[in-house]
Amino acid sequence: MVDISFIIVNWNTRDILMDCLNSIYKTVKDIDAEIYVVDNNSTDGSQAAVKNGFPDVKLIENETNTGFGYANNQALRIMQGKFAVLLNSDAVLKENSVKRLLAFMTTTPRAGIAGVQLLNDDGSKQNSIDNFPSTETEIFNKSILRLFFPGKYPSKNMSYKDPIEVDSVIGACMMVRKEAMGDVGVFDEDYFIFLEETDWCFRMNKKGWKVYHVPDAEVFHLSGHSKKMTPWRSQIEYYISLYKFFRKNRTQASYLTLRVLKPCKIFINLILNILGNLVTLFQKEGLRNRLLKYYKLSVWHLLRCPDSMGIQKKP
User: Fold this and answer.
1) How far apart are CA 221 and CA 166, in angstroms?
2) Residue among 40, 34, 79, 85 nearest 63 (CA)
3) What domains can be seen in the chain, in order of their start residue?
4) b/e string for 209-235 if b means 16 or more Cβ within 10 A?
5) What angle do CA 8, 12, 53 make, to 5 degrees?
6) Is the pLDDT confidence value at 315 over 50?
7) Rounded distance, CA 3 to CA 79, Å?
8) pTM (two decimals)
């Protein structure tokens, strides 16, 4: 059996996809591996670039943008590896990162998922761990929660020498045990993009599988390249996924509380950003971008949250 099946979902990220694939070939040695690229109807020549540059890669070409979870599932259902490594196209592996993940998973039989330490281009740490969404995390500032309750809300601000058990990991690079997938299932395809890995970790936890952060497995992450192409639609799509997560995994009372308090928080932020832009005479780009974000989210809520305002899903 193959040791590892790498799975990369791509949508119009040809150049960084090439960097991602190169990093696999450069850093993964003495491990029996296969690589899948699932392309979601890119129009930037990604498919030809994969075929010409990496003929050994198994390319799945979709006729529409099927979404992140659905596309991953296409490869997860046919993979031959004992473990899958789900890798964003905007991620670049460092030397020994996969080797360390594999060693940890091999010696930790109840680990269903293991995530890495994500890094910015300059080597600084990104948040690679997340808590399951709750009323507290969504209403209060996460930075404050992490500051005052670091044990309950772990973050990049803490230094971890050894792997730690966590609620959820950021899905830019994570290793998943095939046996656990057989028990829990693959991604829930109701999520088009965002929080599908969080939902997966939640389901793993309910079935008794553990999720770990492995700090010495490091991966560079450009962070949200596809998302930057549709910024405000991506923000709305995140909220669509967030409300789905609560409706599916939290109590009715928690879901209703979120649906009341979250729009209130957005409207308050809209007012504060209007005032901030007026004071600065709209000269601060960051403030202008935040104003647009909260304006679009406010309009979306006032229109009763139509899915059509998110990232468009083609039939």
Assistant:
1) 20
2) 40
3) 4-227 (3.90.550.10), 230-309 (no CATH)
4) bbbbbbbebbbbbbbebbbeeeebbbb
5) 65
6) no
7) 10
8) 0.93
